[in-house]
Design a protein that fits this description.
Blueprint lengths: L2 H19 L14 E2 L3 E3 L5 E6 L8 E6 L7 E4 L11 E5 L5 E5 L4 E4 L9 E5 L5 E5 L5 E4 L15 E3 L4 E3 L1 E6 L2 E11 L6 E6 L2 E8 L19 E5 L2 E5 L11 H32 L8 E2 L6 E2 L2 E2 L1 E2 H7 L8 E5 L2 E7 L5 E6 L11 E5 L6 H5 L10 H21 L2 E4 L17 E2 L5 H6 L4 H17 L15 H12 L15 H14 L10 H9 L20 H5 L3 E3 L5 E4 L1
Parallel strand pairs: 20-23
Antiparallel strand pairs: 1-6, 2-3, 3-4, 4-5, 6-7, 7-8, 9-10, 10-11, 12-13, 14-15, 15-16, 16-17, 18-19, 21-22, 24-25, 25-26, 26-27, 28-31, 29-30
Length: about 575
């Protein structure tokens, strides 16, 4: 190589080094080996947005932010360390060992981070053309964190203000304190959690302005919007809403429409009264009857109906010694339970609905008597629980799932159990059928039940069997986490290896335990469509196929101070009723 060539090569090499060490970067992402330093920037693929350090009003304070790349003067749309600027001459934005995006100064002091730990350092951060800064798992490709979920003072075309009700997260837009201070100012914009939501501007913590409720395509009550549509006028005051309606004179009193309306209303009221009277008469007559047409009858011989066994009342009276108190096994919300013995030697348990119950005629449910008592006798006893180690508990879980599959799919009559739980008896009450804590939300709130209602109950029971804790008594930490909340945290933090009852931990297989907790969380999803069906459930428990990731379940946190109140609300009705549908 000639002398001139060597000089030219050295010049180009130095130029490349200085360019690299200046404002340019070799990589278009941020990771552990390629942090973003003061003086460097990261551009979105299309060159629309730019991420880097910036200062305001010639101050030494440095902020990490996103701005429009080719607009002058600079327009900042998002700031990371709004409350804590960097005052040193050196700082780095990088990925920490636990997968968080983190801002460090020269002394390695933390000035800002995403706060969420993902237990993985195989991640990188990149800036999208939407202006969204995202942290992505290199292995799964999943987005772990994004700036669009942590808004500043500017909304971009694909960002949004929202209220995430299931996770309890409020995505709020907050003003800068001033043009030279990006820390949160007095005003913020959010949506209220009520349904339908309202737009709300706060000044500090106090409400400053709110819109009307969301009306499918717009918020009502906003000047300049409503006038183009509601003839009607809505006036909002500090203590409520006043609704004024403009009516035509033909709709007022003294015309045929009014007379028709009055006559129709009177007829409807009379019909309702008559229907109510007929209903009360039917209930009175029903109480005179001592039979349940599905399970027992007053005749001397059992009825012959395919798929259902019937017993004559005299047979049940003989088997229980005429419901003798010496045969009484216990008392539930439905009434007493008696032990009986049929003429062929079979032992039975008879649930007898209380005669004072408002549920109508007397009902008798006949069960095979289980000598070993119920699962809760062992599960929640500090000594007996040692007899059911993890292999036995796992076998019990699979057995219950097979039983559900039979009721839902294999039986000639499809049966929805509705009150699957680990506790056999509860306190007396006269409320709707089911036990709080085990009932699916849609059944508890609306009375709608399905196969997925039983799946929810199974999920709660599954978590009880694994942990050895009863959902109605469990409370963890100062915030009083419920069993479901504790299971979610355990699965997120350690894949639930610490969720198993520690008294039997030596007999466990951590992978089986973690898989079962994940299945339990899938079963207690808030929406029925997110829960597995019974066939999918059994497949999950008997194979090692990949499982979907559960969403954070909806649960209510209560404190220990509320325990005396919650104990009175535990049982809605201890009776186990089955909804039977013909195939």
């Amino acid at each position: 190589m000639t002398k001139m060539g060597m000089v030219l090569f050295a010049y180009l090499l130095l130029l490349n080094i200085f360019t690299t060490c200046g404002n340019g970067r070799n990589a278009d992402v941020i990771n552990t080996s390629s942090p973003l330093s003061i003086g460097q920037t990261l551009s979105s693929p299309g060159g629309v947005y730019e991420l880097g350090f910036f200062g305001l009003d010639n101050s030494r304070s440095q902020y990490v932010g996103i701005w429009f790349k080719n607009i002058t003067p600079q327009v900042v749309v998002w700031v990371a360390n709004r409350d804590k600027p960097v005052t040193k001459t050196a700082a780095n934005l990088t990925i920490s060992s636990n997968g968080s995006l983190i801002l460090l100064d020269a002394k390695q002091d933390v000035f800002w981070s995403t706060r969420e730990a993902f237990t993985s350092n195989k991640c990188h951060a990149e800036l999208l053309d939407t202006g969204n800064l995202v942290v992505i798992d290199d292995v799964s490709g999943k987005t772990l964190w994004q700036s669009f979920e942590n808004l500043g003072n500017t909304m971009l075309p694909q960002s949004s203000v929202s209220y995430d009700i299931p996770r309890g997260k409020n995505r709020v837009l907050s003003a800068w304190k001033s043009n030279t201070d990006p820390s949160p100012g007095k005003f913020s914009l959010e949506f209220t959690p009520q349904v339908p939501p309202q737009g709300l501007i706060r000044r500090g913590l106090a409400p400053y302005w709110r819109s009307g409720p969301w009306a499918k395509t717009r918020f009502s009550g906003i000047p300049g919007i409503d006038e183009s549509y509601l003839v009607d006028t809505v006036q909002f005051s500090s203590d409520g809403e006043s609704l004024s309606l403009r009516l035509a004179s033909s709709e007022l009193a003294g015309n045929n429409r009014t007379k028709i309306f009055v006559a129709t209303t009177v007829c409807l009221c009379i019909s309702v009264i008559l229907a109510f009277a007929a209903y009360k008469f039917w209930r009175h007559k029903a109480k005179q009857n001592e039979l349940n047409p599905m399970f027992s009858n007053n005749s001397q011989e059992p009825q012959d109906v395919s798929g259902i066994n019937f017993f004559g009342m005299h047979t049940i009276r003989t088997a229980t010694n005429n419901f003798s108190s010496s045969n009484k096994l216990g008392q539930g919300g439905f009434g007493p339970v008696y032990k009986g013995k049929l003429l062929d030697g079979r032992e039975i348990a008879v649930k007898r609905l209380s005669s004072s119950s408002s549920q109508g005629e007397e009902q008798l449910l006949i069960y095979e008597f289980l000598v070993n008592k119920s699962l809760d006798t062992f599960l929640f006893d500090p000594t007996l629980k040692l007899e059911i180690d993890w292999p036995k508990r796992f076998s019990i879980i699979q057995g219950i799932a097979r039983g559900l599959l039979y009721l839902h799919r294999d039986s000639r009559l499809r049966v929805i159990h509705r009150d699957l739980k680990g506790t056999q008896y509860q306190d007396n009450t006269r409320r709707v059928v089911g036990t709080l804590g085990y009932m699916a939300p849609e059944y508890a709130w609306t009375g709608v039940f399905s196969e997925k209602s039983d799946i929810y109950s199974f999920g709660v029971l599954l978590l009880e069997i694994i942990s050895g804790e009863k959902i109605s008594r469990f409370s963890c930490g100062e915030e009083g986490k419920t069993l479901i909340a504790y299971a979610w945290d355990s699965w997120c933090e350690t894949k639930a290896v610490d969720f198993l009852d520690q008294d039997i931990a030596d007999s466990s297989h951590p992978s089986e335990v973690g898989r079962c907790v994940q299945i339990g969380l899938l079963c207690v999803q808030h929406r029925p469509v997110d829960r597995p069906n019974t066939l999918e459930l059994l497949s999950m428990l008997t194979t090692t196929s990949d499982l979907p990731s559960p969403k954070q379940p909806t649960f209510a946190v209560h404190t220990r101070d509320d325990e005396s109140i919650s104990n009175d609300l535990i049982t809605v009705n201890g009776i186990t009723q089955s909804a039977i549908q013909g195939r």
